[in-house]
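Cross-posting from the chemistry board since nobody answered there.

I work mostly on the small-molecule side, so proteins are not my area. We synthesized zinc ion and want a rough idea of how it might sit in this target. Sequence and SMILES are below. Is it possible to get a predicted 3D structure of the two together?
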Amino acid sequence: MELFALSAAEMVRGIKAKDFSASEVFASCLSRIEALEPELSALLALTAGMGREEAARIDGMIARGTDPGPLAGVPVVLKDNMCLRGVPATCASRILEGWIPPYDGKVAELLAGAGAVFAGKANMDEFAMGSSTEFSAFHPTSNPWDTGRVPGGSSGGSAAAVAAGYAPLALGSDTGGSIRQPASYCGLYGLKPTYGLVSRWGLVAFASSLDQIGPFARTVEDLALLLSVIAAPDARDGTCSPRERPDYAAPLAAASLRGKRIAVVKELDAMRSSVDPEVLRVLENTLNLCREEGAEIVEVSLPVSLEFGLPCYYILAPAEASSNLARFDGVRYGLSCREDSLLDLYLTTRGAGFGAEVKRRILTGTYVLSSGYYDAYYLTAQKVRSLMKAEFRKAFGRCDLIALPTAPTPAFKKGELVDDPVRMYLADVFTLPVNLAELPALSLNGGFTGGKKPLPVGVQFIAPQWGEPELLNAAAVLERRLGKAPIAPLGAATEGGNAP
Amino acid sequence: MTFRYIPVIGLEIHVQLSTATKIFCPCSTDYIGAEPNTNVCPVCLGLPGSLPVLNKRAVELGVRAGLALSCTIRNHTVFHRKNYFYPDLPKAYQISQYDLPLAEGGEIYIPGDDGRPRRIRITRLHLEEDAGKLVHSAADGRLEGAAFSFVDYNRGGVPLAEIVSEPDITSPREAREYVARIRQTVRYLGVSDGDMERGSLRVDANVSVKKTDETSGEVLYWGERTEIKNMNSLRAVERALEYEIIRQTGVLAEGGSLERETRHWNDGEGITTSMRSKEAANDYRYFPDPDIPPIVVTEELLESTRNALPELPWAKERRFAGEYGLPEADAAFMAESLPVALYFEECVKNGAAPLRAANWIRTEVFRVMNEKGLSMDSFPVKPSVLAELVALVEGGKLSTTVAREVFAHLAEGRSLKDALPAAGASPGGLSAEDVEKMVDRVLLANGDVVEEIRSGRDPKGKKIKFLTGLVMKEARGQADAAAVSGILERRLGEGR
Ligand SMILES: [Zn+2]
C-alpha cells in the first residue's frame, strides 16, 4: 500500500516506529495531489515548501528521540477560511485575493503543536455560503467518486481532498451542514462539534453563532484523533467553552450499542417524497445494523426543527453574515477598487469582489435586520431557534442519539442547482437544525447507491450538547460492520475500505 | 403676544475608561504619541478571523461610574453591533450597547442658574469601543476637499462609557456645570482621567429651542434639535451652546425653520457650522453581537463595588461645610478634586484650623502649583508641614507675610527648620509672653504717643497702627499684626 492511503493513526505509528519517515509520507501525498489535482481542483493553495520543511523537522525530532505529538508527520488540509500565518486565506472570494494572514488561527496552532504537516488550503463555496463548492470564485471542485458531480459544500475541497487521498485528515467548517453534507457526498466521516467545543479564533466568520470547525477522516480512530487535538479551550474566543474535554479515544473501544436508544424522527415519514429512495434505504440499513448491535430504536418528534429550521436559518445566518462581511470594504486589505469618493470605493470594491450567492445573502441579511423588519424576521427567527433547542432537549429525554439522513440526495451533478438557490438550500434541511440547536452531529458513510458509478450516501447521528463521545462510540461500532471509508477509486489503485 | 425662547439641552458624554488594555483585545490604551498603527492587533484592526473578548475591567469601571451616578445596574446585559461603513471603523460595525445598557435611570445635582441645586437625570450609561482616527490631507483637516486620507487605528477599541443625560439642562452655564460635575465624578472614581483636551472626555450636545408664550408659558413650537460636536473644553461647551441658542432663536424669531443636523463647533471662529443633515436617517441594524456572550453582573460585584466607592464630591462638600464650618465656596474648592480634598483633610488632621488651611491651599498652594506646573500629588510641601506653619500663624507666632516667605522656601524643598531662619524668623517662633514683653518695651519708650491715644486724640487709629508697626519691627515680623494690635488695644484701654 502506498503511504498516502494509510490512515493518520497508521502514519503516526509508522513514523514513530521509523518504518518510514514523515518526509516520505509527505512526498507520497504530494505526488497523489499532483496526479489528481488537475482532475479534482480541490485546493486553492498547495503548501509544498512549508510542508516539506515541517516534515523534515518532524523527522529530526524522531531521530533525536523527541515526541513530535499525536499527529506526528500527518499531512492535513485546511479549509481556506482558516488563518495560517503566511499562507493566503481567500475564503474562495475575489475580495480577499492576496490577503495573507499575519497570524495563526487556534486550530492551526494546535495542529502544528501536535506535529501535523500542512499540505494545502482547500477550495470552498465563497465565504462558506453554498452546498456544492460551485460558488468558489476561482473554480469548482469535482467529486472524487464521479467527477461530473459536486463534492458538496461548503467544505467540498476538504472532503474531496480526504476522499481522494491527498491527506488522511482535513478540517472543514460547518454553519448549516458544510462538513456533514460533503462528508456524505464524498463517503467520509465528518463531525460538526457542539458549538463552543472548538475555538473559532482565526476562522473567517460566516455566521458567528452557528460556525464550528470540525474534522474529516476516513476512519473513526482518525476522526477522534483530530478532534482530540482541536477540541481545546481558548481565551481568545469568548464563545469557546472552558470546560474540560473528555478522552475521545475511549469511546472507540465500545463493544456494541447495547443499552443505547437511537431515535428515528417521526416527521421524516411525511418528507419521504422529497428524499431520494437510496438515501432512505441506506438509512434503514444503518438502523438495522444498530439494532443488530443491540441498540433500541425509538421514535422522537422534531416538528419545529424540520418545518421551520430552514427559513429560520436563512434569516439568522444571512443576518450575521451581512454584518461579518461588512469589513471587506477595500480600505485595509484584499481587493480595493480605487475610486474618487469613499462611497464609490465601497460600492465598486464590494460589487466586484463578492459573488452572486454572497451578495444574495448580504442583501437578505441586511433586509431582515432593517428597522421595521427586525421584529418580523430576526426576532421571530430567534424565537423559533429557542423552540428548536427546547424541542431537541425534550427529544433527548427519550433517546441517546437521533438518526437522520445527512442530505436528501447523494451528490448532484455540477450545474444542476446553481441557478436554483431554494433547491440548493434544501440540501441542508436535515443538517442545519443541528447548528441552530448548537448540537454535535456526525455523518458516516452508510453505503452506496447502485448503478455504474456508485455514489456514497451518508447517515447523520445527532447527540445532545457535548455528546461527541456518544457519536464516536456509535460510529466505531458501525465501522466494524460497514468498514472504513474508502479512498475514491481514482488514478492509482487503492486498497482497503468498503468500496462497492 | 410676546414670546420666550427656552433652550432644551441634553448631553452625551464619552468617557475613556482607564483600563490598561483595550476593551476587546490585549493592546494598550496608552496610544498617545505612538507611531500610527503600531498599537494594534488582529482584533482591533478587525482582521478576518479575529474575535473580540470582553475586558472585564471595563465592566467593573462602568458599574462603578453607574453606581456613583445613582443608576440602576442591569444584572444581565449584552453588547450589540451598530452597523455602518466608515474607514475609522475596521469591522464596519461598532460594538456598543443598545436596548440593554449596563446602567440606566441615574441622576446628578449641579448648581442651577437660580443658585439652588438642580437635578439632571441620567438616561443611561453604556459601554462601547472607540473608533480609529482619520487624518485628512485637506488644509483644514476635514474630509471635504481632501485628496486622500490616512487612518490610524491606535485608538480603535479603547473602552468608552457613554453617559447620556435627559434634556434637563436649560442653559449653557448649566451644561458647563454638568460636564464639570461628570468630569469631577469620573476622576474621583478613578474611572477616567477626564482630560477633554486629549479627548478622553468628549461632549456632544443636543440642543433645541422651544418657543413659548411669555405670559401663559404655553409651548407654541418645538424647534428641531441639532447635535454639536468638537467641543474640547468646558469653555467651548458653554460658548458653543451660547452661539447655537442665539442662532436657533434667531432663525425661529424670523419665522424660519430649523433642520435636524449635526454641527461642528469651530473654536477659533466661535461659530458652529453644518456637518451633515440627518435627512437620510442611518439605520444601524443593531443586533446582539454573537461573538460576545451575555454579561452577568453578579450581586458580589455590585456589593464590592458599592463598598469600595470613595466619598463622592458632593458628599465631601457637604461634610466640609458641616464638619469644618467652611463657607460653601471653600468647601466646593476643597472637594473639587480628590488629591486636594485629601491634602486639605490631612492638614486639618495635623492640627491646622480648617478655614485658615483652606485659605492657604486656595491661595498659596495653588499659586505655587500653577507657577511651577506641579500637581497636588507631587507638591513638595507635605500637608503636615503646612499644618505646622498654619498653626504658627494661628497662634500669632508668625505674621502672614513672613509665613508666605517661609512657605516659598518650603516649596523649594526646604524643611520647616531651614525655612524659618531663611525667612528671617526664629525657629521656635515667638511666644505670647515674648510679644507681651515687646509691647511693654514699645509702650514705655513712646509715652507721648500713649498719652495722645489715651486722651482720645487718635480718631482714625493711625497712632495705634504706628505702635503696632514698632512692635512688629521689634518682632522682625514673627508676630501676627492683628494679634499685636489686639494686645495694644487691651493694654491702652487698661490705663484709662
Ligand atoms: Zn488590539
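Reply from a structural biologist on the board:
Welcome over. Reading the output above for you: Residues 72 and 287 of chain B are 23 Å apart (CA to CA). Chain B has three domains: 3-303, 311-422, 433-494. Happy to explain the C-alpha cell format if needed.
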